[in-house]
Design goal:
This protein is an all-alpha fold and 143 residues long. The chain has 8 helices and 2 strands; from the N terminus they run ααβααβαααα. Bound molecules: calcium ion (CA).
Length: 143
């Protein structure tokens, strides 16, 4: 994967996402502009997260959980591929794919089951997060 310019093989990458090679090329250029090193560390992710969702208060703990979810190979960094895979699910994934993503976020010990503690843990730290707003929106839709 990759070529002389250090760009990933967008045709190959597009097979694993719901983005076209052309879209991935544009995303990659923007990604490199914001993150010239080609990867995002935990602090950068927190800044990005706050900018994207305009969260008030301390989102550090929740950002940490979401960061781990992005960082599939546990390298301590989110590379372009990891970033785009999650973005693909978030923006164009099916309901099942989104549900699985959320399930994995909650399933802290990767047991394949959710315990009450895990649910409470994630809900507690997500109070000031996008999920909080999403939960509110879902709730409003239900009533
Ligand atoms: Ca990584």
């Amino acid at each position: 994967m990759g070529n002389a310019k250090g760009k990933p093989d967008f045709n190959e990458l597009s097979k694993g996402t719901k983005f076209s090679a052309k879209e991935l090329n544009t995303f990659f250029d923007n990604f490199k502009k914001d993150f010239p090193q080609g990867k995002i560390d935990k602090n950068q992710f927190e800044v990005l997260y706050k900018k994207m969702f305009g969260t008030e208060g301390d989102a550090k703990e929740f950002c940490g959980l979401v960061f781990e979810q992005y960082d599939a190979d546990h390298s301590g960094y989110i590379d372009f591929k990891e970033f785009i895979l999650t973005l693909s699910i978030a923006s164009r994934g099916t309901k099942d794919e989104k549900l699985l993503w959320a399930f994995r976020l909650y399933d802290r010990d990767h047991s394949g089951f959710l315990t009450e503690n895990e649910i409470v843990q994630v809900l507690t730290v997500s109070l000031h997060s996008i999920f909080y707003y999403l939960n509110i929106m879902c709730y409003i839709e239900l009533i």
